[in-house]
Design goal:
There is one protein chain. This protein is of the alpha/beta class. Helix content is 42%, strand content 27%. It contains 4 helices and 5 strands. Strands 1, 2, 3, 4 and 5 form a 5-stranded mixed β-sheet that branches. Strand 3, helix 2 and strand 4 form a beta-alpha-beta unit. The chain is globular and about 30 Å long. The model has no long low-confidence stretch (mean pLDDT 93).
Length: 102
């Protein structure tokens, strides 16, 4: 089964709607790992599970801008266990991280 990673930014303590939409499509393509960016909570991770996520990689950049630190962590993860596909939405943080990762 294909390994699909989905960038999911936190919005008001929950996974963003863009992230959940991408997860919904990704589960049709393979095994879904959410790259969850934010403070995180059991409730948020449970919600991801309800949408079909089998694994969550949690990154909390704190009050820092998301782009550089998240792209660095993702770069290291991709080097060690590359997925077949990484999905990003069109939100500002999604585009920033995707551009830096590319």
């Amino acid at each position: 089964m294909a390994s699909i990673w989905v960038f999911v930014r936190e919005a008001d303590g929950d996974p963003s709607s863009i992230g959940l939409e991408l997860v919904t499509k990704a589960r049709d393509l393979g095994d879904v790992t959410a790259i969850y960016v934010g403070t995180g909570s059991d409730r948020a991770f449970g919600r991801l599970g309800e949408f079909g996520v089998s694994k969550v990689v949690h990154i909390d950049p704190g009050d820092n801008l998301v782009g550089a630190p998240v792209a660095r962590v993702l770069s290291d993860l991709v080097s060690s266990e590359p997925p077949e596909l990484i999905l990003f939405g069109q939100a500002y943080d999604d585009r920033d991280v995707a551009g830096r990762l590319a």
